[in-house]
Amino acid sequence: MAQPQLHKKTNSKLEETNSLKGTLASVILLGFFIIFTWVGVYFLFLDRF
Amino acid sequence: MHMHKFEKIWLIFGVGALLVFLSVLGVSAFYLGNQPPSCLATIDQEKVDTLPPFNEPGLKKVEGKDWDYELIFVAAAFAYTPGEVEVPLGAKVKVIATTKDVIHGFQVAGTNINMMLEPGYISEYVTTFDKAGEYLILCNEYCGMGHHMMTSKIEVVE
Ligand SMILES: [Cu+2]
Fold it and tell me: What would the DSSP string read from start to end of B46-108?
């Protein structure tokens, strides 16, 4: 039967993908990039007439 | 529901940023009274040349208003009237513009004045010209064959 093989594979992969450190770092980086560009454009807007 | 600690951190971060952006927008719109350049003021596009203030384009001194001058512009393919205008440094000016034919742009390069001129609508922007210099006005809405040559000029002089 083909089904027992399917169960085997899912278990071992779960633990490798459980750490979210990289994801957190990239989310924070992207967040600061968006805030930095937004604030930059906002101050440009305030500076101009 | 189980949620990873990191997930909570970036959700709070994201929601916080969204709230800050929306508050700035809200204060700008409801407290400072900022609005889109074309806000409900309409005009008969066929009669622009005969209707005030567009029958006399250019800079005009006004009394008893929140601004000192009104700067009237009429756009039509492929030019602005006036083609060049001088504004005294430090003047608080209401720029009032409309179009006689199709949609044109009205961007004063290097400033916050950037409006769309739509047939039948009047676009307005109040600002204080506090930096001397020459400012190019250009059309940034494609309006036809001569679009790239459609310009005017504002000179802010002391
Ligand atoms: Cu144009």
Answer: GGTTTSTTTTS-EEEE-SSSSSSEEEEEEEETTEEESSSEEEETT-EEEEEEEESSS-EEEEE
Can you tell me the ipTM of this complex? 0.74
The 8-class DSSP code of residue B109 comes to: T
Whole-angstrom distance, CA of residue B37 vs CA of residue B94? 11
CA-closest candidate to residue B79, choices B154, B151, B153: B151
Task: For residue B92, give the amino acid letter.
Answer: K
Backbone φ and ψ of B138, nearest 5°? -140, 160
User: In this complex, which of B17, B24, B130 lies closest to A49 when CB atoms are compared?
Assistant: B130
User: How far, in Å, is the centroid of ligand 1 from the Cα of A43?
Assistant: 29
Architecture of domain B45-157: Sandwich (2.60)
Q: What is the pLDDT of residues B8-41, one digit of tens each?
A: 988 998 899 899 989 999 998 999 888 888 878 8
CA B118 to chain centre: 12
CB contact under 8 A, B110 and A21: no
Predicted model pTM = 0.78
Instruction: Name the closest residue on chain B to residue A29, using Cα atoms.
Output: B10
> What is the CA B73 to chain-centroid distance, rounded?
11
